[in-house]
Amino acid sequence: MAAVGDPAAAALRATFEGEVLVPADGGYEEHRRVWNGSIDRHPAVIARCASVADVRAAVRFGRDHRLTIAVRAGGHSFPGLSTCDGGLLIDLRPMNEVRVDPAARVLDAQAGVLLREVDERTQEHGLAVPAGIVSHTGLAGLTLGGGIGWIMRKYGLTIDSLLSADPVTADGDVVRAGEDENAELFWGLRGGGGNFGVVTDFRFRLHPVGPQVMAGATFWSMDDAEEVLRAHRDWITDCADELMTIVVQRLAPALPVVPAELVGRPVIAVAACWAGDVDEGREVLQPMRDVGSPVLDLFAPKPFLAHQQMFDPSFRHGCSYYVRSCDVDVLTDEVIDVVAEHGRMITSPMSSIALWQLGGAVARVADDATAFTGRSSGFTFDINGNTPTADGFEDQRQWARDYWTALAPFHTGVYVNFLMEEGSSRVRQSYGDATYQRLRALKQAYDPSNVFRLNQNIPPD
Ligand SMILES: Cc1cc2nc3c(=O)[nH]c(=O)nc-3n(C[C@H](O)[C@H](O)[C@H](O)COP(=O)(O)OP(=O)(O)OC[C@H]3O[C@@H](n4cnc5c(N)ncnc54)[C@H](O)[C@@H]3O)c2cc1C
């Protein structure tokens, strides 16, 4: 704790509605931790904000004491960018209010909410905001990077439903950004991450979904990977926007729905969600379920809420996580060969890949309408080298790197929310030159001293 001591923290605490924690305080250990257990950092001060006034006070405190500032919502940054050593952690998690106006189909969410909390409230009305596929992820970080998930091909990215966002800027001011208000900032917040301020509140448009959807996954032995991947490629060509698929490779997990004899065997799965009529979805899914000899078929009508949590057990808090990601345009036979070959090399019960299908409504928004880049990509890979503890983690990281490198001839870009700390050239690559330059100009206008730099950083112009 070089630059700030307990008396300074006590001064912040005096006017703070939420909690201010220093290492000696009870609760510090719990609240310094992030989702990725391989990240182990010790902020000097944790400001657990309960209000916009708290966020403003915390930003000013960080600036006055020249502290590195980390901002945390759901804490799911893969590289652990939402914590720091020796600086200030602005923890938004206590700000977790969700308000739904079902008649207007509008959602107001504070920045600390998790996806599950949003889904639970919106699904009471058969509504949803397009978001991610693991329900303990934070809405804020996911939204600020773009937001991909089960209903994006029907309703677009998370940012495509964003109506406004309210950041606290580096000066401690509160600004509203929307289509008609600070429009350039609104453009940048939709994909540019936490570079422009600490967003305290989001407003979204909601869409009708479920509450029952036809969804789940069919599994085959990894020996059948080529056949399954080719069939999947053909099946999704020109498919309806209601259909969204993710191909998964992993060792079959030890879950109650998985027969004991299958657990630990290498499998390839096609997971999907049909965001429309259940019977129609059943018909559309059938041809894929009929391919070859599945070893397990979990497709069924089920609550959208349950489907949104299907992957939760595979990404428990506190394990060691590493990801490499890339977009590819087409699943050529060459890509399929790489996928089949490297999928067969999985050895950790927690390592996996997700091959996301893009397109549909995502691709119908103009590239320069938001700061998200990659709308015309065909597919996104995230290759997860994970282990329950630090044991064997380096081997899994190497497996993920090797898989990613083998795909290098086919890379077209990368989703910024799936980057590790990979350096400024990768951040630039994820935005492309034109968007990156525009983001730099915006950064210069809102944060010229780069106060908010613990993120996929855009340096001021
Ligand atoms: C298990 C898992 C599943 C995932 N699934 C998906 C998915 O389905 N779809 C998808 O699109 N992405 C997914 N992601 C990626 C995810 O979108 C990013 O990791 C995202 O940053 C997480 O948001 P968070 O609020 O939980 O993270 P945090 O770690 O809290 O924050 C991530 C980054 O955003 C910044 N930030 C957070 N809140 C604010 C705020 N209010 N104002 C300004 N800056 C802020 C932080 O400073 C940090 O740089 C997943 C990640 C994980 C770990």
From TrEMBL:
Q: Return the Pfam families for the record.
A: BBE, FAD_binding_4
Q: Per its Swiss-Prot or TrEMBL entry, what cofactor is needed? A: FAD
Domain named FAD-binding PCMH-type is located at 39-209
Enumerate the SUPFAM superfamilies for this protein: FAD-binding/transporter-associated domain-like
Instruction: Supply the name of the protein.
Output: FAD-linked oxidase
Single GO MF annotation: FAD binding
Question: Is Flavoprotein found in the keyword set?
Answer: yes
Instruction: Provide the species name.
Output: Modestobacter caceresii
What lineage is on file? Bacteria, Bacillati, Actinomycetota, Actinomycetes, Geodermatophilales
Which UniProt keywords are present, listed alphabetically? FAD, Flavoprotein, Oxidoreductase
Superkingdom of this entry's organism? Bacteria
InterPro entries (alphabetical): BBE, FAD-bd_PCMH, FAD-bd_PCMH-like_sf, FAD-bd_PCMH_sub1, FAD-bd_PCMH_sub2, FAD-linked_Oxidoreductase, Oxid_FAD_bind_N, Oxy_OxRdtase_FAD_BS
The record ties this protein, via PROSITE patterns, to: FAD_PCMH, OX2_COVAL_FAD
Q: Which family does it belong to?
A: Belongs to the oxygen-dependent FAD-linked oxidoreductase family.
